[in-house]
Write a structure and sequence with these properties.
about 260 residues, 4-stranded antiparallel sheet, 4 strands
């Protein structure tokens, strides 16, 4: 009897130890995901499976919110034609020029004599200002200043994050930001690249707001606050050279004991 009890306690101790190891590994995995998550600027065309979309959305709705108002609503779009339509053409294509804009006529926009333009950068409309200078452009993922810069319509999945403008939450924008970050981490943990963009919200909340909402099946009382571009990163695209450098943690925080 005593031997059986000892065995039972030994087994329980092993189970507790194993659970502790699993919890520790899970915590390390979550931290690794957060620290490794960056901005993806070019996506492969592979579709995101519905089960993964559901998991990402679940991460969003599982977010904590002030007085439990949950002031968010998510529209997951996989139809690229619909993405392009609702973007209003506001995005920049991979070549660094707005969609629909052709190359300027020969000689147009040329810099004054003796002045050069950084490699990969197009001159501004109307040419260089007299005596002015063009700032050096940081390198973009994909190679050079004119490299890949993903916008709405360039990823196989886009999640539009809407905010309830009638929410009683004291900080609905903050709550929606938390939900957005939760979905970013979930997508990254599932092996997807993610980019948060805000420029499409100008079109989503513009003159065609109600029309777009009806097309998406979204209540017209909602306001778009962000869009998540999600998909597998495109192969062969440099996603590190042009990455923004984070400042040192001790320059942006303090620990008090």
């Amino acid at each position: 009897m005593k031997r059986s009890i000892r065995r039972m306690f030994s087994l329980l101790a092993l189970l507790v130890f194993a659970a502790g190891l699993a919890a520790s590994a899970g915590a390390e995995s979550a931290v690794d995901t957060i620290l490794a998550t960056g901005t993806t600027q070019a996506f492969a065309s592979d579709a995101v499976p519905d089960e993964d979309i559901q998991t990402i959305l679940q991460a969003g709705v599982s977010t904590s919110s002030a007085i439990n108002q949950q002031p968010w609503y998510f529209a997951a779009v996989t139809n690229r034609d619909l993405m392009k339509e609702i973007s209003g053409g506001s995005g920049m294509g991979f070549g660094g020029r707005p969609e629909g804009m052709g190359t300027p006529p020969d000689g147009a926009g040329s810099p004054p004599e003796g002045m050069s333009i950084p490699e990969g950068m197009a001159p501004p409309p109307g040419g260089m200002p007299e005596g002015g200078s063009m700032p050096a452009m940081p390198s973009m993922p994909g190679g050079g200043a004119g490299g890949a810069k993903a916008s709405l319509g360039d990823s196989p999945l886009a999640i539009i994050v809407y905010m309830d403008t009638n929410s009683k939450s004291p900080s609905p924008e903050y709550d929606c930001g938390l939900a957005t970050q939760n979905m970013v981490i979930a997508a990254s943990a599932l092996g997807y690249g993610v980019k948060i963009v805000s420029s499409p919200t100008m079109t989503l909340n513009g003159d065609k707001h109600d029309e777009i909402c009806r097309k998406l099946g979204v209540d017209t009382g909602l306001k778009a606050v962000a869009v998540l571009l999600i998909g597998k990163p495109a192969e062969g695209v440099d996603a590190t050279t042009g990455a923004s450098v984070r400042e040192a943690v001790d320059s942006k925080s303090v620990i008090l004991h």
